[in-house]
Amino acid sequence: MKSFPNQFLWGVSTSSYQIEGAIHSGGRGESIWDRFSSLPGRIADGSSGEMACDHYHNWEEDLGLIQEMGAGAYRFSTAWPRIQPLGSGRFNTEGLQFYSRLVDGLLSRGIEPWLCLNHWDLPQALQEKGGWTNRDTAMRFVEYGWKVLEVLGDRVKHVIPHNEPNVLSILGHGIGIHAPGLQDASACFASAHHLNLSHGLVSRELKICQSDLQLGPVVSLQPVIEQDRDQNASERLDALWNKMFLDPVFFGTYPEILEEELKPWIHEGDSEILQFKPDFFGLNHYTVMRAQSSGKSALGVRIMETPAGLPVTDSGWEIRPEAMLEQLLEFRERYGDVPIYITENGCSSPDQSDASGEVQDPLRTQYLRDYLAAGLEAMEQGVDLRGWFFWSLLDNFEWAEGYTKRFGLIYVDYETQQRIPKDSYRFVQKLIQENTLPD
Length: 439
Known about the structure:
The protein is α/β, with parallel strands linked by helices. The chain has helices at residues 16-19, 32-37, 55-69, 80-83, 93-108, 124-127, 136-152, 165-175, 185-209, 231-243, 247-251, 259-262, 270-274, 322-335, 362-380, 423-434; strands at 2-3, 9-13, 73-77, 112-118, 158-162, 214-215, 218-220, 281-284, 291-293, 301-303, 340-344, 385-391, 410-413, 418-421, 436-437.
């Protein structure tokens, strides 16, 4: 049995659009995911986040389940259209009050709030002006972030500007399987630069307002393996996915092989804005990727499906815990000794409640055990890993997959909104209590 450090932070993560529901309540405006989900064929089961887990009305029960688990932190996102319905102009007091009550509820239960300002649900009104392809959206994001911290900053000490901006840019603007559904290389690179620019701008602004605030990027890093199969495609995908949103933060530059494609969007002085020393880095990690050149892709490369015969999750993602160890070591080698938190890690499995009302999910429990062991090995090799947030607290609206995939430690019956802690929830509960990973 191996133990984690005494101060190791255990948490769970969610996102606003995936759990809140209540998209027409409390003065909330339309988001790009509301619009995208309404388009035929975009979501696997034709669903949307209209109801989701109805966390907007069930948040107290959900916080109680976090407390019962023993987690010390909760990473959640504020919905920009709930706080500022049009993305500019008037702020919605009712939306701000909802998150203020949520933060108070967390603190009263001894749970530390970790706030993410953007988990992809951009106000649709801004999308109609170009969204993240429009440089002005970065300025609007700063105004929104400032307002959120004006209201919550006296109680929130950890802030993440964007969750997985690489996924938003590549899948939303380049490949088109996420909102806003574009398949356009120029849109991908414009959105990438403006997301990076907004990260630097809002980080500086919020630090000025609150110097003790802890700020850091959260990026989904998935190693590109078997690079010898298509070296050029592998290098390109690695630059797009794993470096395009971290090199700017740490170096103020972009990967050399992408410079020409990003050049049209870069203004004089941007490099100084992009580079901002983070207080921590949040790593989201699930699997690995294989690349193949593709003339049919707007980005010239596609992510291949996992070869048959390998262990996979219900989403078809390869289970390869040693890749997390490799990713953590590679990050330290490239970007230096930065405090790291695993801000998302988990897996989908085909969960169902049995005759006794229990939900057994052995695949998820074993997945977590193996990835946690990889995290422990990374720490033994000197990686400054300080905490772990499991994805996700609840089964939820899983973006383009709708409700066909379940990632939660807690099962949600979407018809009744009943919550049922799974076996993996009990595994995490015991892990936190003992701060030790069983052999």
